[in-house]
Amino acid sequence: MTAPVKDPVKKVESARESFFKRLTRQQLFIPLAALVLLVLFNLIADPSFFAVSIKENSLGNPVLSGNIISVLDNASELVILSIGMTLVTASSGGQDISVGAAMAIAGSVILRLVCGGQVNADTMHMNLFLALFIAIVVSMLFGAFNGTLVAYFKIQPMVATLILYTAGRSIAAWINNNELPIMNDISFKYAGTFLPGIPVPTPIFVTLFVILLFWLALKFTNLGLYTQSVGINASSARLNGLNPQFIKLLTYMILGACVAVAGFLRVSRSGSINYSRIAENIEMDAILAVALGGNALGGGKFNIYGSVLGAYVIQFLTTTLYKYDVASTALPAYKAVVVILLVVLSAPVVREKLTRVKGRTPAKAAKEVS
Amino acid sequence: MPKGIAVDKQGRLREQRVAMSDANLLLTITIVVFFLLYLSAILFLGGGFTKGQTFLNILNNNAPLIVLACGMSVVMITGGIDISVGGVTCLVCMVSAVNLERQGGNIFTVILIGLGIGLAFGVVQGFLVAHLGIQPFIVSLAGMFFAKGMTTIVSKEPIRVTNEAFLAVKETRITVPGMGSVNKLGQYVPAYVEVGVVVALAVVVLLFCLLRWGKLGRGFYAVGGNNQSASMLGVNVRRTKFLAHVLCSLLAGLGGILYFLHVGSGDVANGAGDEMNAIASSIIGGTLLTGGVGNVVGTFFGVMSLNTIKRIVSSLGFDEAWWSNITVAAMLCLFLVIQSIVLLRKNKK
After folding, report:
1. Strand partners for B174
2. Which of A162, A167, A347 is nearest residue B279 as measured by Cβ atoms?
3. What is the C-alpha to C-alpha distance for residues B68 and B280, in angstroms, rounded to an integer?
4. ipTM surpasses cut 0.85
5. Structural domain tally of chain B?
6. What is the pLDDT of residues A138-196, one digit of tens each?
7. The domain A67-325: what is its CATH number?
8. B349 exposed, middle or buried (CB, 10 Å; 0-12, 13-18, 19+)?
9. Interface membership of A142 toward B (CB under 8 Å)
10. How far is B64 from B275, CA to CA, in rounded Å?
């Protein structure tokens, strides 16, 4: 391929091929391709899917409504989680499967604080931001627990987080004495629904804010570099003066903070909580988002924007499935098929075979021409 | 203390004391913990724990879990993991219930369904893990969600089985001599176990023999200990891993049949969290997550310890549902940390 090409026909061919190769080699190729496929499918099946209208919500405010808005809105928790999950995956080469349970804990803490222990509270007993701050601290402590098991006791991440996965929802129920507190104050629901006078759902702003924070953190600190070097080779990172254990612990704590924000958004959508159902199966979606974003699940290099895009694609898929009357309980079966397809396509063995098949055709064609 | 044979400087054979291997150490810890737990329960709580039937009831209630956990141990010995077993159990129960109630099936079709579903999951997951080299956790996570999703597609409503032939098998009680007790009226009540317990114990014995003496069983340990040296020794690594996953899912299918036999209904909540219980039991039983070390006898004691402590917690008055989960998690955490310390100590040497 490196030999100079004299034949103009061949030149065009190789340029086209290299463009295609360059395109498929892009990390964002898979999520973008998936997104385009989904959009095309919906355009052909029912163009009204993309309609956005202005409706009045229950409070009488004009708000935007439509499938696209609902995708952007409902993906918020997933996007925030997948950013944290990307860091954890990159540094420790494994995923945290306790995020759903940890979201239940964070939500439970917030409701307990703002309801002041009452089952049905009409006014807030604590400043919302203070409650959120405490929830973030609690969540980061649980993240530190996971991180300690992974970093210092060297337990596989998925197994270490299995502990919190098993106990998390029970702990969340225990925090509120197994009662289901309901917060009736409208201002509590601002974060999960709409701010008065603004027609765009608040979670979209929160998500943008979180993405901005991470963009700044990755641009102005060494977080990204250190995480990648620990993930690629922990012992050489140590020889270069990094503390791999601490970096791993740090990523789990950052995920903890993300979990708290996501849990807060989830409880403030309805002002109530159901311990066994809240954020059910979200860990699967978060892992899927990371994988879809083209990040290696074995750790190392990462791209949080890939994961963010992956998260939106997954929510797009979910919304599309809902539109065609797939029951929410049956959803995991469909998603599992998508996951398997994805991991099969990205498996090294399959990739090798695919490239061999792809490589053979142009070579044969070249022979025939000459 | 086990003895080893060493050759001294003069070339004579000598018996020598050697340190316990990690496998035996972990197994011993498990068995000791189980007996300590049960003894302390008898001493401090008394009551139900002194009766033989209480012990047998732990067996009756957990026969499916024993089978699941044994399968899990096999996969964990090869260095993998399979979290789809709870989902498979649930799916088997639901499909069996539908088959019995709506399609006029009988006990044999139920057995066929259970093993068939198990085999299908095993073949797909085993292929993905062994031949495509995908992480077992991701594969079986997808398997779990697929099984759970399929269960709700089959039926969302719980289905109670009324088939008489099936209920007859379900109610069959096998009397265990010498473990009965005298009730308040002075009558002797014989102790019993259900059919499932016999099957589960048979599985434990068969797997123990396979792992100890079978060629395949030794292959599991070899692959889990070190992939490369196993393949240099002539073990077909891919085939062994594939078979481990098939065996595990088959046992999950069998566990599903036993679960169905125990509860007698198909329900979306069946087998919920059983994958966690199975993993916890295996770990408590001394199976190392890194592979190469483990024993189904340990796993059996792991299941028993886990459920004894659950019973103790509930008889101490913490009978709200959440305590059981928290106990499992705490116990899992404790044993994981013990394992990790054992391994780290070994690596330092």
Report:
1. B193
2. A162
3. 11
4. no
5. 1
6. 999 999 999 999 999 888 888 889 889 888 888 998 888 888 888 888 888 888 888 87
7. 1.10.3470
8. exposed
9. no
10. 11
